[in-house]
Structures are given as C-alpha cells and as structure tokens.
Amino acid sequence: MITKTVLAGLTAVGLLLSPVEASAAPAVQAKPTTLELDAGGARVKLKKGDQLQIKGKLGAAGERQLTLGLNVFAQVKVGASTWTNIYTRSCTPNSTFTAKLAIDASADLRLYFPGTSVYASSTSNIVGVVVI
C-alpha cells in the first residue's frame, strides 16, 4: 500500500514537472507607429537661453487619430551619452502636439514613443541642435 502511494505521488510530481504543450491564443501584435519631429530643419541653430519650438506627430497606418493620452517624450543626447528625457507631452485628438524646449548645450534631439499594448514603440527623425 505504501509503495503504491509513493509511486502515485512520484508520478504526480513528474507530471507537474514535465513540459506540456500550451495551446495559448496567438499574441496580439501592436500596430506599427510613425513619429515625426519638425523643428525647422535637420540642423537648427539656437541662441543660448532661447527656446526651440517643435511640432510632433504620432501616427499608425490606417488610423485617422490615435487614442487620447498617449505620451511622447522629447529626448536629447550630447556626444556619446545616452538619450535623456527632457519633456513629456500627451498627444491631442489629432495625434499632434507642439512644445517649446529649453536646450542649454548643442545636442541631438528626437521624439520617442514607448508604445502600449495596442501601438508599437517608435522614434522620430533626429534633429541636430547647435546652441550658440
């Protein structure tokens, strides 16, 4: 009797530890997005202390407007450093936004959208900002 109980217990543990094929539903893929940055050109000059006016547009193929409240980050990178968030803005109903940024040193500027479960992440074109 004890042998049968031990064998049954070991069999049950073996079943719990053995891999089982999952029949999960296929993962939903996030919709690809595009992100555009307009700062007045690919390279802009800015006087120290002045603010840079930018426009951004977040889009997804086949959709006129995206869900409200999606956050887009303005990021800068100086030299070989990493991208650093300097500004966050939520998109308006037409998936656009405008902002004025204070940039104290020459740097590369881009927009970044981290993505959601519905929309994939994306980055914009890079604009070189030269502070004089």
Describe the overall structure.
The structure is a single chain. With 132 residues, the chain is mainly beta. Helices cover 12% and strands 42% of the residues. It has one helix and nine strands. The protein has one helix spanning 2-17, and strands at residues 33-38, 43-46, 51-60, 71-77, 84-90, 96-102, 107-113, 122-123, 127-131. The strands form two sheets. Strands 2, 4, 5, 7, 8 and 9 form a six-stranded mixed beta sheet that branches. Strand 7 and strand 8 (122-123) form a beta hairpin. The chain is elongated, with a radius of gyration of 25 Å. The protein starts with a helix and ends with a strand. Residues 3-18 have low confidence and may be disordered.
Task: Compile the SSE list and pairings.
Elements: H1 2-17, E1 33-38, E2 43-46, E3 51-60, E4 71-77, E5 84-90, E6 96-102, E7 107-113, E8 122-123, E9 127-131
Parallel strand pairs: 2-9
Antiparallel strand pairs: 1-3, 3-6, 4-5, 4-7, 7-8, 7-9
Number of helices: 1
Q: What about the largest sheet? A: 6 strands, mixed
What is the radius of gyration computed over CA atoms, rounded to a whole number of angstroms?
Answer: 25 Å
Succession of helices and strands: HEEEEEEEEE
Oligomeric composition of the shown chains = single chain
The shape is elongated
Beta fraction of the residues? 35-45%
Tally the beta strands.
9
Distance between the termini: 89 Å
Task: For this entry, give a set of tags.
single chain, 132 residues, mainly beta, 6-stranded mixed beta sheet, 3-stranded antiparallel beta sheet, 9 strands, elongated
